[in-house]
Structure formats: structure tokens, C-alpha cells
Amino acid sequence: MTTKSWMFYGENGEFKLDQPERSSSLYFPLVNEAGMMSSVTPNLHGEITSGHNTFLMEPVSVMDLHNSKASRNFWVFVDGFGAWSACGNSAKQNAAVFSGTEETSRLEAGFLWHKLTREHAEAGLRAETVNFVPVTDDKIELMKVTLTNTGRNPLHLTPTAAIPVYGRSADDLRDHRHVTSLLHRVFTSRHGIEVQPALSFDERGHRINKVTYSVMGATGNGQAPCGFFPETEEFIGEGGALDWPQAVVCNLKPPVGPDEALEGYEATGALRFEPAELVPGQSVSYVIAMLISDDRIDRARIAGDYLSEARFDELLEQNREFWTKKLDTVSFHTGDKQHDLWMKWVTLQPILRRLYGNSFLPYHDYGRGGRGWRDLWQDCLALMVMEPEEVRHLLLNNYAGVRIDGSNATIIGSKPGEFVADRNNIPRVWMDHGAWPLLTTLLYIHQSGDLELLLQTQTYFRDMFTGRCKERDLSWTPEQGNKLLTRNGKVYEGTILEHILLQNMTPFFHVGAHGNILLEGADWNDGLDLAPNRGESVAFTAFYASNLMALSELLLALHRKSGQSSIEIAEEMAVLFDTLSAAPVSYDNIDDKRALLDRYFGMVGQCVSGTKAKLDILRAAEDLKRKAEWMIGHLRRNEWITSKEGYEWFNGYYNDDAERVEGDHPDGVRMTLTGQVFGIMGGVATDEQVGKITASVNRYLKDENIGYRLNSRFGGIQQNLGRAFGFAFGHKENGAMFSHMTVMYGNALYKRGFVKEGFEVLESIRKLSADFERSRMYPGIPEYINEKGRGMYTYLTGSASWLLLTELTEVFGVKGRYGDLLLQPKLTKEQFDADGKASVETLFAGRMLEVVYVNPDGAEYGDYRIKEATLDGEPLAGVSEKPEDGLLLSRSLIEGLTAGPTHRIEIVLGR
To answer: Glycosyl hydrolase 94 catalytic domain spans which residues (predicted)?
Structure first.
């Protein structure tokens, strides 16, 4: 049985796929800003929820997509032919997939709508089912089913919509599933049913429940259902099932009408409509609404706002316009249209991460909603491009999660700036967490020129854990709140700059036996979680080194651009600027570095004085630079390794036995991609070393079948390093193509001018993801690609933010520099179209810009430079003879352009 790939059609990323049911684990997201989060499969399985404790349909893992029968369904009893599912989800139709008698079906999807078409060839009946979540203030999903007689004879149909209503917390799926059904109170009305459980049974306690789950429906012209089967056991019948329910198969009369109440049973929104007679060519439509509300619904309003075909079509068009406009904020045009349309779906993914967090899609069957600390900062990377008006507020609030010891909260609330203590009092520190905020904040400053953000003040997070969660302050109680206090009991605030300094300076002193920063609970790779005592992350030591250098340069820029001569910090922090004291620490002496940090921890264990120390900004910058230079020199001297085959690269880790992880080993050469990325990206690796690293990566990590592996085969479970090695090799954090690190590898290569190599890396990800025969995923980038080439954990991945940012700022070279616009293209010859053009539309300084690069000579990167440039047809000055300098346009020039229309910057490239 062959499987055809999806195909793009139109100009806005719409795609279609024939016989989508032939591929397992496919699902599509449907979501709105009001908090409705749905997923839908080719047979309309999936889930509908507004949060961990409020699932309308039952929570599903990817395995449930074929195990569970509880899906959205729309049944038609056709006289002379029997029961048929318009969604293809019946026992009879599912059995036909491998029998050679399956029906013709087609999936079509776009931003953000899903359409399924199925043909009942024998009866001459076509069903078109469209699902979407409208961009209204309601938590609602809409579904329209259109039935058309495609045959030669009249058809007599009896339609029944059937959506099982789970109506409770995900915790109840395994914990008291039946008992919680006894809480169900079901109310019928003219257009459908409402399920309002009497109590909520979850970790919050047994509380009176108000949340209501509703399934409403009408014909396209507004005619209400003629009856209901609200109890699941009555609907399916003894011996029946949701994919072969007795009520439909035997065409039973509905036992319940409007204005009735039932209780104590599992519920199904099974809505029976009046029988319909369709002559050849005639169609009839039905609109179904699935809602989650804070209390009983206003039935008349819902019916008027949603339950008609005209209103459905109007809302669908509004939905398309909303998402198209949002995604048009960034749009790429190259010589490869498939690439450009695929990137539209990548552009959507960071928005999906903001709305879903890391939960509520079938592969993302973990967590309880929200995002982790790292996610807060990495998702902001794309938001600066997509939704820039939100970013300053988010950044400012996110810094409230920093502890005074340089670590941070790990439980993130749903609102900006909301952080809570660890739910189970389990202390854990990811050593990489302190590195990401500066990277994101720097991007914001360069995009906006807003250096003033650094001087804004923010609180600190406080709980019982101190000394990077190594100690517990038993005097602290939750009643004191989660804000750091001064000795006199006032809430302490420090500048954002102070927060950033803390996060990057404390790790500098927190080193292991080999002088690298301790791994603690793990770094970016959560799977390296079994080396908390003696493990070291060389990879992120390189990241922190580049951060300290960037901080030094940032202080100099603050001095140069704002006239700032000093910075204010908590007086306890002054010890971290050790080179400014009379007794600086020897950075080669590990014990002295740890002792200084312990001294600092001792000063801030319970509170701070509240007194500020002033440091000369130039001397502070010099201190940071010295620390960075020491780290860079240390890494180049001590962590550069050579295999027996003569390949060279950076070691990335030490395990909990203080053993170097990478290099030659009896089980084969061990290498990690993470260990190379940050050395390249942050300038730790010299240009010569970058070339040697790429050769080593190609030798030990590159696999033509799945791309650039996260690591080579280590052999055996590594109990002294991390759980990742318990996974089968080629899966997730153990040797899969992990998109996030691969994209960052490509980004790092572009940053260092290795454009050909970077292009190959990014193209490999796209080609692997778009190879549907193997990846079995819709357009977009997955979290990882497994050993079989299958795309896993689709839609919700931070790699989308990095890929979008890399394409815009590195490939197309459209980036900020302290608020000005720098154009520095790194396009390869093949990325220009047949007319020698490549372009990107993007928002900068509040103006929509189309940046067009013209390459009339077909020159390759490295051979061309910017020869001339125009803005809206007028020549621009400032074109440099040095290709690497690019073209710098002042922010005032951009802001002086008329708001509203798209302005065209055309740059001619030549040798």
C-alpha cells in the first residue's frame, strides 16, 4: 500500500493529503486566544480542552489515537445501506483500510482549519467535514458536516452527531474514572446537551464545580435536533461501542427530548436530527458546537452566534484572515516555493507553543500545562518577530523568576510573571537556565534599541531552597510569599541588569574538578540528569563564557549610548566582581572559586540587606571580560580533543565519576553535537577549529537517513550521566536528530560565516521533515526525528523559534543592532529565484518592510557584496565595500516611514 505525500496548493500554506487514514499518529492543532485547545486527526479523533482540569473530550496520548474509540463523530443511517460515519470512524470503515475496499478520502488544511472529505461510493454520498476554533472570546470548537447526494437515486438519511463528553480533569482518567462519572449532571435543551459535574475531583480537592461542557447543534438553516442520546451506555447499547453504536446501527428513536435532566452516567453529546431526503445533487449541512464554559451557557446566544451555516462560514473566513494576517508578519521568498510555504508552518509553531505550552497535544501527554523556564525565553525569540508589542512586558515579568543565588523557579504559572515553588518540594537546578535570558534580552535590545530595559527594576523569586537548591531554609514558610525580602522585611528589587549579572556570574564560580561549570540537575539536554555531583557541562561553560563577553560589551554600549558611568547592584554581589577587590581569586584555583561562591551564598541565604553598591561601569565591564577570556582560554587548552582517526572537536561533558565523556572509547567514538554548538556560536572555537568540528560532525554524527544526530552511540546505560541513554539509540535525547540542537548548529555556522555548511544543515531538517513517506507528519518541524525517520512530537518545539530566527537574521541577514537595522545577507546562489531575487517581508521598528536582494550575476555567497541599495525607489547611502559589514540603516529612518503600507528596500548584490 503506497502512501502519497501531502501537497501544497494556493499561496498561504494550504495543503492536501489523499487517504490520510493510512498514516498513524497524524493530528492537527485547532486553538484560539480565549483558551480553547483542540487536536483533530484524519478521523476526527483527538482532544478538546481548556486546561489540565477541564477536558471536554478525554485526554489522549498518541497511542490512544488508535486504541480509543472516543472521537468526534457524525453518523448517517442511509436507508438500504445502513450506518455510515462521515468521519470514517466506524468499525466497518476502519476494517476496510487494509482490505482494498477503503473509501476515497481527502484531507485539506490551512491556518487554522481542517477539512475531511469522504465518499460513500456505494450509496452515492459525499461528506465534507470542516473543523476550526473561531477567534472569539468563547472556548468553542465548531464542526460543519455537509452531506451531498452524488449518485443517481434519492437518498433517505437519518443523521446523528456524537461527541463523547469526558467533562473533568485529566487526573480522573485513571483515578476514579467511574466514580467521577457519578458527579455528572446532564441537561438537555432545544439545541443540545450540557454536562456540569457537581464536584471537581482533582488535586485541588473536592470542590463545587461550575465548569460546563456542552455539545450543541443545528441544521445549516438553524433547525434544532429532534432528540438526544445523552447517556453513553444507552447510545452504544449492550455489546455496542462508540465506533458501532446500537442507537445508530439500529436507527433507534432518541429517548430524550429538550428540557430534561439526567445524572450519574458517562455522557455523550449524541444529537439526532430529523430524517432528510436528498435528491441527486442536493446537499444538507449540520453545524455542531463543542464548548467549555465557566458556568451554564446562554443557550440563545450560543445558538444565535454559532449554530447556522451562514454564521459558520462567516466565522471560518474570519479565522482564516486572522491567522493569515498574523503569519504574514514574516514571509520568505526564495527560489524554492516548497521551502517558503513550509516555513509558513514553522512560523506558526512558536505561537502554538505560547498557546498550548508543552501539553495538550497527543505526543505532548506530560505536564499540566504552562511552560518551563527555558521555554519562556526561547519562545520570546520568535515573538520578537511575530508579536513584538508583547515582548517587553513578557521579558520584564519573566525576570521575577530569578533567585538571588542565580538559579530560578521551575514551576511557571499561566500568567506572565507568575511563578510558584516546586509542587512537590523536589529541588532541581538546570545549569543552563541562567544562560538563556541574556541571549533573548540581547536580541530584544538589538531589535528595539531599548537599553533602558536593563535599568528597570524587578523582584526576585524566593522559596525554601537556597545555595542553588543545595540547602533548605526551614525558617521560610509559604505564607511569607515568593518574593525576596530585605532584612527589614521589605520586598527587594534589583535592576534587570543585576538579575542578568547574577545568572551569569554565579555559574562562573560553580565549577567542578576540571574547571568547567557543574552540570547539576542537567543542562539543555534534560536527559543528562544523573551527574549532579561531579558532572560538568563543557558545552554550557562555552555558552556562559560568550555571555560574560557579551555582558562586558553590553556595559560598554550602555556607557557609550546612555552616558551611564556606574551600575548599582546588591552590596552582597560585589564579591562576585572579585578583580575589583584587593584580593582577586585565582581562576585556576577551583577551591578558591567555590569558596567565594559559598561566601556569597552565605550572605544571601535568607534575605539581603537592601543596600546597593555602586560599581564603575568600565571596571565592571573589564571584570566580566577577564572572566570570559579565562574561560575561553581554558576551553581551548583543556577541552579540545583528537580521536585516533585524527578528527578534532570539543569535549562536551564530564560524568558523575568526573570522567571525560567524549573521544575514543572501547565501544566506539563518543561525540555530542551540543558540545560543538556553543563553542562555535559564542566564538570559543577559532575559525580553524570550526572547520575541524564540521568535519568531525560529518564523520561521527551525520546520518543520511535521519540527519545530524544529537550524539553518537555511547553503548549501554550511563547511570553516571543521564537517563537519556536508557532510551533506544536513535530516539529522543539518545542519538535522534533533535531539531533544536541541529537548528542551533546551523545558526552557529551561519554566525561564523560557514554559510555553505549552515545551509546544508537547515536544508537537511526541511527535507527530512517534508519526506512524508518516512516522517509521517504535516508541514512543520518536529521536536526530533527517530531512527526510522519519523517526525516526533510535532508542533510544540522551541526549534521552530530558532529556525525562524535563523532564516530571518542569518540567512536573510535582517537584524537589529542597538535599534538600527542591519542588512547582512548570507544567501547561497541556489536560494535566489529564476530572476535572481530573494526577499523577506518582516516587521521592524513598527513598519512592514520588504527586503529584496537582487543577484543579477548569480554570484555565490562569499563572492558578492552590496553594490547599491534603494528604499522605496530612492538611493540609500552608507553602502560598504566590505561584504561582512552589510548595510546599516538608522532606526529614525525606518520610523520616519509611513505606517501601514509595506516599504521596499532593494539591494543589488554583485562581485
So the answer is: 621-809
What does the pLDDT look like over 497-536, one tens digit per residue?
Answer: 999 999 999 999 999 999 999 999 999 999 999 999 999 9
CA 827 – CA 758 distance, rounded (Å): 11
Does the pLDDT at position 243 exceed 70?
A: yes
Let me know whether 48 and 168 are in one domain: yes
- Residue 556, classed as helix, strand or coil, is helix
Q: What is the DSSP string of 802-837?
A: HHHHIIIIIIS-EEEETTEEEE-----GGGS-TTSE
* Helix, strand, coil percentages in the chain from 3-state DSSP, rounded to 5: 35, 25, 40
Tell me: pLDDT of 341 over 90: yes
Same domain membership, residue 147 and residue 35? yes
Tell me the sheet residues that pair with 76. 84, 159
What is the sign, positive or negative, of the torsion defined by CA atoms of 100, 101, 103, 104? Answer: positive
**Position 100 confidence tier, pLDDT thresholds 50, 70, 90:** confident
Question: Could you tell me if 12 and 138 lie in one domain?
Answer: yes
Name the residue with cell 495543503: 15
Contact status, residue 259 vs residue 188, Cβ threshold 8 Å: yes
CA distance 260 to 270: 14
Q: Please report how many Cα atoms fall inside a 13 Å half-sphere around the Cα of residue 789, on the Cβ side.
A: 16
Amino acid at 785: I
- Same domain assignment for residues 155 and 270: yes
What are residue 649's DSSP bridge partners? 641
Per the model's pLDDT, the better-predicted residue between 403 and 1 turns out to be 403
Residue 450 is given by DSSP the state -
- Cα–Cα distance, 555 to 442 (Å, whole number): 12
Cβ neighbours of residue 646 under 8 Å, at least 6 residues apart? none
Closest by CA position to 870, among listed 897, 907, 825: 907
CB-based contact 432:544 (threshold 8 Å): no
Is 779 part of a structural domain of the chain?
no
Residue 800 within a domain: no
Contact 438, 550 (CB under 8 A): yes
How many whole angstroms separate alpha carbon 716 and alpha carbon 403?
Answer: 37
Please report whether residue 787 resides in a domain.
no
Q: What confidence tens digit (pLDDT) does each residue in 392-428 have?
A: 999 999 999 999 999 999 877 777 778 876 655 667 8
Output the nine-digit C-alpha cell for 88.
470514517
Mean local confidence (pLDDT), 623-649: 98
Q: Which of 798, 837, 830 is nearest to 380 (CA)?
A: 798
Q: Which helix (H) or strand (E) holds 801?
A: helix 799-805
CATH code for the domain in which residue 12 is found: 2.70.98.40
DSSP state of 4: P
Where a domain ends, among 569, 594, 615? 615
DSSP E strands in 41-72: the ranges are 46-51, 54-55
The backbone region for 106, taken as left when phi is positive above 0, alpha when psi lies in -120 to 50, beta otherwise, is beta
pLDDT at 1 over 50: no
Q: What are residue 556's phi and psi, to 5 degrees?
A: -65, -40
The span from the CA of 397 to the CA of 417, in Å, is 4
pLDDT tens for residues 767-803? Answer: 999 999 999 999 999 999 999 999 999 999 999 999 9
574 lies in which domain range? Answer: 374-615
Boundary residue ending a domain (570, 594, 615): 615
* Mean of pLDDT over the chain: 95
Same domain? 113 vs 43? yes
Q: How far apart are CA 663 and CA 641, in angstroms?
A: 7
